[in-house]
Design goal:
- This is Lipase.
- It holds the Pfam family Abhydro_lipase.
- One of its GO terms (biological process) is lipid catabolic process.
- By secondary structure, the protein is α/β, with parallel strands linked by helices.
- It has one domain: 3-Layer(aba) Sandwich (Rossmann fold).
- Strands 1-2-4-3-5-6-7-8-9 form a 9-stranded mixed beta sheet, with helices on both faces.
- Helix 4 crosses helix 5, helix 6 crosses helix 11 and helix 7 packs antiparallel against helix 11.
- The chain starts with a helix and ends with a strand.
- The structure holds 2-acetamido-2-deoxy-beta-D-glucopyranose (6 copies).
- The site of one 2-acetamido-2-deoxy-beta-D-glucopyranose (NAG) has 5 residues, from loops.
Length: 418
């Protein structure tokens, strides 16, 4: 038996053990199975983007205890995950607690975008390219996720629901995506009632995360390495298929629980105390994520360049493409819809002061809300108390806007709930 086969053999045994010992009932389930188990009615739709990607839209039209003869013109809420995230994030906490369900239970018609590079339901991901084979498929960042995926989703959902406008929530780099869309296609301002930014800011100049900051400074080196290795994804498929069962095994055996937590927390620099132990299995069941290398590089460029800019091809190519050694800047001020920012007091990736820098360019910030005393980047999706710390104030804001009670501009609020 050669070495590769041995590795595969061991991996499949691990995988089998995970299957036997998996404690959380959601671990082995796909999106449809999970949503069914949670008991919410839902629908699968598909939109086609201008550049040929096929995007799943997962709709939760009503809450768990609601009848079919509810008002037909409910407020529509579109939710987008960040790079490395997926719609699974928004149902992971399960019945009544996960954000998709929380909003559906409160009379929102909830649509989750399954952006390019993420698997949800349909396997065909592009009209021309095969996502497992063609590097062209992975040629994107938050830019394309915004100007194509979100744009196509907004148009599809407004048409399907016969509404004029919708609410938008973006987590992490989905905030960058919506700002890219509004900068490049400002007519989309007219299709939005309001946007809520969860743990995201188009301007990110520093982080409380020295190792990632260093990588950002050295991003050209990093890009070079990815190019030499020919990695169009940060975790190519063979690596993913090997790591995934190991990760899952770690998270089931109590001895390894701490390692497992640390892996989840590699998305922040501190441990979260807000996530239930058994949820880690579900979170890591899908890890490591499929993540376009270019998407990671574009985010790093922005940290290095200290402003919200187009993709950085290096000074020479930039001069050719953008007419300047620095990449072209997005127009942040083009976002004129009511905008709310939700920050975590201990989020080490997107700091609150970065959101303030963004707000200096906006004329319509309606809420700046800090969640504390301890709330981190992933807590926006998975924290035990996210329901009343985060989703409840969001619902209140949206209902106020629906009722014409737009709050006076920039209310800075701090929640010190535990
Ligand atoms: C739905 O329609 C009713 C009656 O036309 C109206 O009062 C209500 O505000 C509408 N709701 C939304 C969310 O548009
Ligand atoms: C990636 O897309 C850009 C346009 O967005 C194009 O100019 C470039 O040639 C593409 N690169 C690859 C490797 O497909
Ligand atoms: C709009 O929705 C209707 C069904 O409600 C559908 O027949 C039509 O193709 C949709 N149009 C677009 C442009 O998606
Ligand atoms: C940016 O958008 C704002 C608001 O629409 C507009 O007034 C301004 O002229 C734009 N700036 C640039 C450089 O396009
Ligand atoms: C923000 O600026 C835009 C474009 O300059 C304008 O149309 C809009 O009314 C302004 N919004 C507020 C709340 O001042
Ligand atoms: C979560 O909220 C409950 C109240 O519903 C509170 O008793 C509990 O201490 C909170 N837990 C954390 C970890 O914040």
């Amino acid at each position: 038996m050669n070495r590769t086969r041995l590795v595969l053999f061991v991996v499949s045994i691990l995988d089998y053990c995970v299957w036997i010992y998996g404690v959380h009932p959601d671990v082995k389930l796909n999106f449809i199975e999970r949503a069914k188990r949670h008991g919410y009615p839902f629908e699968v739709h598909q939109a086609i983007t201008d550049d040929g990607y096929l995007i799943d839209l997962l709709r939760f039209p009503r809450g768990i205890s609601k009848s079919e003869n509810e008002p037909k013109n409910k407020s529509v809420l579109l939710i987008m995950h960040g790079n490395g995230g997926s719609p699974h994030n928004f149902i992971a906490m399960g019945r009544k607690k996960a954000p998709a369900y929380y909003f559906a239970d409160r009379n929102f018609d909830v649509w989750l975008i399954c952006g390019r590079g993420v698997h949800c339901v349909n396997n065909r991901k592009h009209q021309k390219y095969d996502w497992n084979r063609d590097p062209e498929y992975w040629n994107f960042s938050f830019h394309e996720c915004g100007i194509y995926d979100i744009a196509a989703s907004i148009d599809y959902v407004l048409n399907a629901t016969k509404q004029q406008k919708l609410f938008y929530i973006g987590h992490s780099s989905a905030v960058n995506s919506i700002f890219a869309l509004l900068s490049e296609r400002p007519e989309y301002n007219n299709k939005l009632k309001a946007i809520a930014n969860y743990a995201g800011s188009p301007i990110i100049t520093e982080m409380d995360y020295p190792s990632i900051e260093l990588v950002c400074e050295l991003s050209n080196l990093f890009k070079g390495a990815l190019k030499i290795l020919d990695f169009h994804e940060v975790f190519p498929r063979t690596i993913r298929d090997t790591i995934n069962p190991i990760l899952r095994l770690f998270c089931i055996d109590r001895k390894f629980k701490f390692t497992c937590k640390t892996l989840v927390m590699s998305f922040s620099s501190h441990l979260s105390y807000n996530i239930d132990e058994d949820l880690y299995e579900v979170i890591l069941g899908d890890a490591p994520p499929r993540f376009a290398s270019k998407a990671l590089c574009h985010l790093m460029d922005n940290v290095k360049n200290g402003y919200f800019r187009f993709y950085d091809h290096g000074p020479k190519m930039n001069k050719k493409i953008y007419g300047h050694t620095l990449p072209r800047a997005y127009n942040i001020s083009a976002c004129v819809v009511p905008t709310a920012f939700f920050s975590g007091a201990t989020d080490s990736i997107v700091l609150r002061k970065e959101m303030w820098k963004t707000q200096e360019y906006l004329n319509n910030t309606v809420l700046d809300y800090e969640i504390g005393p301890s709330f981190m980047h992933v807590d926006f999706l998975f924290a035990r108390n996210a329901t009343f710390k985060l989703y409840e104030p969001t619902v209140k804001l949206f209902n106020d806007i629906n009722n014409g009670k737009i709050p006076p501009r920039i209310i800075r609020k701090r929640s010190n709930l535990n």
